Known about the structure:
This protein is mainly β. It has one helix and eleven strands. The protein has a five-stranded antiparallel sheet with strand order 7-10-9-8-11, with no helix packed on it. A four-stranded antiparallel sheet has the order 1-4-5-6, with no helix packed on it. The termini are far apart.
Amino acid sequence: MRPMIRIFVLAAVAAGATAAFASETMTVNVPFGFETHGKAFPAGKYQVEFDSTENVLILLSKTDTRKCFMWIASPGDYSPKMARLSLKFDNEADGTHELHSIRLATWQTPVLDKRERHAAQPAVSITGGR
């Protein structure tokens, strides 16, 4: 009987550890090319993943799998009425888009494009995903 109880306890611990290190992943379509930290990303499908073991948000292009970026994430404002995934972009004067921030559920990046702006720029947001 004791060995059987140990097996159930070990199984419960293993299941709990797996859930603790789970990551959340969503996919979104970005209809325009954009830049972040000097890297150009093409228009297309992107996977956004939160890795709870490292507390990072990962952006991975499904169109060009060599295009990947990772940022440390912190807790952010989130309510059930909000989309689980939000990517915000700034429109630059030359027509390009600069990635401003990413939020996946309760985790968000810091402001990613902190350079000084001489004029207010309209923001573009993409929300949703699967």
